[in-house]
Amino acid sequence: MVGTVHRHTGAEDVEEGVGLTALLVAAARAIETHRHDSLARDVYAEHFVRAASACAGWPVRMQQVPDGDANPLWGRFARYFGLRTRVLDDFLLRSTQTHARQVILLGAGLDTRAFRLDWPPGCVVFEIDREGVLAFKRKVLDGLSATPAAARVPIPIDLRDDWVGALADAGFDPAAPSVWLAEGLLFYLTNAAETYLIDTVDRLSTGGSALAFEVKLDKDLLEYRDSPLYTSTKHQIGIDLLNLFAREPRPDSAGALSGKGWSTSVHTPFDFTHRHGRGPMPEPNDALAGNRWVFANKPRP
Ligand code: SAM
């Protein structure tokens, strides 16, 4: 974090620890892309999965999942990621339709929005994640000769280090409106790191800026440790999400932003399932029950 001398190595590979969760989301996006009723298309996603030896045997389309939609991981959970991708695609495009031209993807992982969305002219997309993750991403995208549809600036840094300095060095202008996204990120940060991140986004955002992020409201995440979603993710692909999540009480980030004058709206994913006519529905022992997608706008002065 800013002011500390210690630098996190940032070297964590995409195929280990929390980096692997970026590949999980990529596999989900690949499956979503090939659905006949897809909510979001990401033609790059399957290439990440295929390039990582840790993902050997993972499906990239539903036909490769023997039990299809009944599979809690590659059915319902993957659809969740598909819906989340679509909703946040729409948020980013909506938010850049007015004045904001700077987009900051916090914990960008294998997000390819810089390549696949139809950005207005003059947009710049900053992608912050650790070095190992962004190096893997570059290798795969270079191999595909992928061309971004906006100016794209990868910033390889750990969010516990001086990412604000790195963002400024990369050309971010705090006097101009910005759009921030923390998709599937805050669960992995400590309470203090989340509070710092939200305060910092507020400090770096001028009026007309927007932020979307995802939180879990559950008081005790372990309440759902036997849920089909967590157990299938652990047993089928060896990712123990509960072990990766920071299991301490969470800050009220939406409330903090409201207190700083932002207008916020908090939605369940199921709100969007209804809106789009497809997506996950609530179920018993549901690890998604506490998930909320928060949208915040900082008013112009
Ligand atoms: N936002 C991307 C998406 O939705 O496709 C990636 C989500 S993935 C579940 C979580 C990402 O957060 C990983 O790419 C991981 O490397 C990144 N991450 C977690 N902790 C981080 C930290 N301290 N600094 C930088 N990135 C971090």
Query: Helical amount among residues, as a percent range?
Result: 25-40%
Bound molecules: S-adenosylmethionine
Q: How far from one another are the termini? A: 30 Å
Largest sheet: 7 strands, mixed
The H-level CATH homologous superfamily, spelled out, is Vaccinia Virus protein VP39
Whole-number total of structural domains: 1
CATH topology-level name:
Rossmann fold
CATH level 1 class label: Alpha Beta
Structural class, please? alpha/beta
The spatial strand order of the largest sheet comes to 3-2-1-4-5-7-6
CA radius of gyration is 18 Å
Structural write-up:
The chain has 301 residues and is an alpha/beta fold. It has one domain: Rossmann fold (3-Layer(aba) Sandwich). The chain is 38% helix and 14% strand. It contains eleven helices and seven strands. It has helices spanning 19-33, 45-51, 72-95, 113-116, 131-143, 163-169, 191-204, 228-237, 241-244, 253-259, 269-276; strands at residues 102-106, 124-129, 151-156, 178-182, 210-216, 263-267, 291-297. Strands 3-2-1-4-5-7-6 form a seven-stranded mixed β-sheet, sandwiched between helices. Helix 4 (113-116) links the parallel strand 1 and strand 2 (124-129). Residues 1-6 have low confidence and may be disordered. The site of S-adenosylmethionine has 20 residues, from helix 1.
Q: Topology, please?
A:
Blueprint: H1 19-33, H2 45-51, H3 72-95, E1 102-106, H4 113-116, E2 124-129, H5 131-143, E3 151-156, H6 163-169, E4 178-182, H7 191-204, E5 210-216, H8 228-237, H9 241-244, H10 253-259, E6 263-267, H11 269-276, E7 291-297
Parallel strand pairs: 1-2, 1-4, 2-3, 4-5
Antiparallel strand pairs: 5-7, 6-7
Helix pairs in contact: 1-2, 1-3, 3-8
Bound molecules: S-adenosylmethionine (SAM).
Residues 18-19, 21-22, 25, 107-111, 129-130, 133, 158-160, 183-185, 188 line the site of S-adenosylmethionine.
